Automatic annotation (TrEMBL), chain A:
<dbReference type="Pfam" id="PF04893">
    <property type="entry name" value="Yip1"/>
</dbReference>
<dbReference type="InterPro" id="IPR006977">
    <property type="entry name" value="Yip1_dom"/>
</dbReference>
<feature type="transmembrane region" description="Helical">
    <location>
        <begin position="235"/>
        <end position="259"/>
    </location>
</feature>
<dbReference type="GO" id="GO:0031267">
    <property type="term" value="F:small GTPase binding"/>
</dbReference>
<feature type="transmembrane region" description="Helical">
    <location>
        <begin position="99"/>
        <end position="123"/>
    </location>
</feature>
<dbReference type="InterPro" id="IPR039765">
    <property type="entry name" value="Yip5/YIPF1/YIPF2"/>
</dbReference>
<dbReference type="GO" id="GO:0000139">
    <property type="term" value="C:Golgi membrane"/>
</dbReference>
<protein>
    <recommendedName>
        <fullName>Protein YIP</fullName>
    </recommendedName>
</protein>
<feature type="transmembrane region" description="Helical">
    <location>
        <begin position="138"/>
        <end position="161"/>
    </location>
</feature>
UniProtKB/TrEMBL annotation, chain B:
<feature type="compositionally biased region" description="Basic and acidic residues">
    <location>
        <begin position="1"/>
        <end position="10"/>
    </location>
</feature>
<dbReference type="InterPro" id="IPR045231">
    <property type="entry name" value="Yip1/4-like"/>
</dbReference>
<dbReference type="Pfam" id="PF04893">
    <property type="entry name" value="Yip1"/>
</dbReference>
<keyword id="KW-1133">Transmembrane helix</keyword>
<feature type="transmembrane region" description="Helical">
    <location>
        <begin position="171"/>
        <end position="190"/>
    </location>
</feature>
<feature type="transmembrane region" description="Helical">
    <location>
        <begin position="202"/>
        <end position="222"/>
    </location>
</feature>
<feature type="region of interest" description="Disordered">
    <location>
        <begin position="1"/>
        <end position="96"/>
    </location>
</feature>
<protein>
    <recommendedName>
        <fullName>Protein YIP</fullName>
    </recommendedName>
</protein>
<feature type="compositionally biased region" description="Acidic residues">
    <location>
        <begin position="23"/>
        <end position="33"/>
    </location>
</feature>
Length: 281, 281
């Protein structure tokens, strides 16, 4: 009985240590920006301390200029950016790029799928000029919003929370969102390229985009997972890759699938995309 | 450079003339310079203890001479001798109120005059937003923001687009237009503030809402002309007009030179989605 009591005491001592208040929302980003903005002079009159309900609190996460955002976007396309977090997200990660990358992706998906379905309808029946103006399913727009935002913002936040719960990872939630947001950049040009009317080319382009963005995510998330003491934590990467496959497949089927071709049927010169489904990498 | 110039200008300007720089949401108007219209007994009423609340309020309602004097002073005569300012703030009975001097007695005019004046103010703001060089020096008009004009324009665009859409899509088209305009202008305004622009929140909403007007014209044209060769150029021209008008507004918000593109890009995206919906309908 006495032994049990001692153990209980130890737990009591450990308790308050674990329950310390910590600032999880990217303390390093805010501190790093304190110095850099002073030299750049963007926010010279910013109040020193502001609560998270005020707009000024988030200004350090939007402290970027045009060149920096463009550079952060195109470096995600290069395969050897393994340490993106330490090499390119300096002095701190921003939220401008991830948010507008995801939003642009939504509109690129909307635009390319609507334009491509018009082109497909025109190719199907060139005589009928009114076929170019067809019913576009606006439900796809809300599908794109839900899919892209939940994958690009929801997944990193959930992953960050899970890693924080397990005590793994030295990154802030802002960095996690930035990795996912910038990682989706490759899908924007691919969405425009996928307007082409050849199903096989669309599948190949989607596969390339899947490989580039998947490699970028793995190369930047796996080092964080590898810092864990417990080896099974690294298996999370398999879950993330599986999720990425699902999202890429959703993009291809929902937005690059040219759904009107099925309705317009027999006169279609192009085989429907299901015929080449085995070509998926 | 602009920012530095502005700071230098502020330093060299004597303190007494700062009241001429009337910012949009400036809360620190020097209240001492405004002659006191408050009754001493009324100011003390909020400080009275809770059990005396009923008693403390009684003189507030039963003090007709001072209250009516304040009201008539508000409406009839300009407060400061040096020209009538567009808005005055003072405290009446411990409550801060803002009054606008409209030039006439608005209490006993017919209601058609009131509505006509509001419509006229919407019209003049529309003209100023859509054609900024017309009265370049007179930006003060926009300080008197309203959200009625943007609401009317947004609903008009939604109705026009949903009328043209097929019956199965009309509801979702209307919903997406209203949601895109509401959320889009909100996000763009917040984002201009986060990038360090000096812009009043509701003023930004007001201007961005009024800038939708050219797209209304394009939607109206495409209601009657169904040729894609006519609709696409008209919609793109309306898009360019929207961008020109709203960038003209952003010019005045003193965003840094290196990041003005970051503030303009969301505008391009926002209006292009609306223009695209007009083209493909």
């Amino acid at each position: 009985m006495a032994y049990v009591q001692i153990e209980a005491d130890e737990r009591m001592e450990e308790g308050p240590e674990r329950l310390q208040f910590q600032s999880f929302l990217g303390t390093d980003a805010r501190q790093a920006n304190q110095e850099s903005t002073a030299s750049r002079g963007y926010f010279s009159d910013r109040p020193k301390s502001s609560g998270f309900w005020q707009l000024e609190y988030y200004q350090p996460y939007f402290d970027v200029d045009t060149k920096m955002v463009i550079k952060r976007c195109y470096t995600t396309l290069l395969p050897h950016t393994s340490n993106y977090l330490s090499a390119h997200l300096t002095p701190s990660a921003d939220l401008y790029g991830p948010f507008w990358t995801l939003t642009t992706l939504i509109f690129a998906l909307f635009l390319s799928s609507s334009l491509a379905s018009s082109i497909a309808a025109y190719l199907t029946d060139p005589k009928n000029s009114s076929a170019a103006v067809l019913e576009y399913d606006f439900g796809l727009l809300s599908t794109a919003v839900a899919l892209v935002y939940s994958y690009g913002i929801g997944v990193p936040v959930v992953l960050w929370l899970a890693l924080r719960y397990m005590g793994v990872g030295e990154w802030s939630v802002i960095e996690a969102v930035a990795v996912w947001g910038y990682g989706m950049f490759v899908w924007i040009p691919v969405a425009f390229l996928n307007i082409n009317p050849f199903p096989l080319a669309r599948w190949i382009l989607t596969g390339i985009a899947f490989l580039v963005s998947g490699w970028f995510l793995v190369a930047n998330v796996y080092p964080v997972l590898a810092t864990a003491d417990a080896k099974p934590v690294r298996l999370i990467i398999i879950l993330l890759v599986a999720l990425h496959v699902v999202v890429a497949f959703c993009f291809q089927v929902l937005f690059f699938g040219y759904y009107p071709l099925k309705e317009l049927g027999p006169k279609d010169p192009i085989p429907p995309p299901q015929a080449t489904a085995t070509g998926k990498p | 450079m602009q920012r530095l110039d502005q700071e230098a200008h502020d330093i060299t300007t004597p303190l007494t003339s700062t009241s001429q720089f009337i910012e949009a949401d400036d809360d620190d108007l020097d209240e001492e310079s405004i002659p006191g219209f408050t009754h001493p007994g009324l100011v003390q009423s909020p400080h009275s203890p809770v059990p005396d609340k009923g008693k403390g309020r009684a003189p507030e309602q039963l003090a007709p001479p001072s209250a009516s004097a304040a009201v008539s002073g508000n409406i009839g005569t300009p407060v400061n001798g040096s020209g009538a300012p567009p808005s005055n703030r003072r405290s009446v009975g411990g409550v801060r109120v803002e009054t606008r001097y409209t030039g006439t007695d608005t209490l006993d005019e017919p209601i058609t005059t009131t509505i006509g004046r509001d419509l006229l103010s919407i019209y003049t703001k529309l003209i100023q937003v859509l054609y900024p060089p017309r009265n370049r020096g007179n930006r003060d008009l926009l300080r008197d923001w309203d959200l009625w004009g943007p609401l009317v324009l947004c609903l008009m665009l939604g109705i026009l687009l949903s009328m043209n859409a097929p019956a199965s899509q009309s509801l979702s088209v209307f919903t997406s237009v209203v949601v895109i305009i509401a959320l889009g202008s909100l996000v763009v305004t917040v984002q201009a503030k986060l990038l360090g622009g000096r812009v009043s929140f509701f003023q930004g909403l007001c201007v961005l809402g009024y800038c939708v007007a050219p797209l209304n014209v394009a939607a109206l044209v495409s209601t009657f002309v169904h040729l894609i060769y006519v609709r696409a150029p008209v919609a793109l021209a309306a898009w360019a007009w929207c961008i020109w008008a709203s960038v003209n507004f952003l010019d005045g918000t003193k965003i840094e030179h290196q990041r003005i593109l970051l503030a303009v890009y969301p505008l391009l995206l926002f209006y292009f989605v609306l223009a695209w919906m007009i083209i493909i309908q």
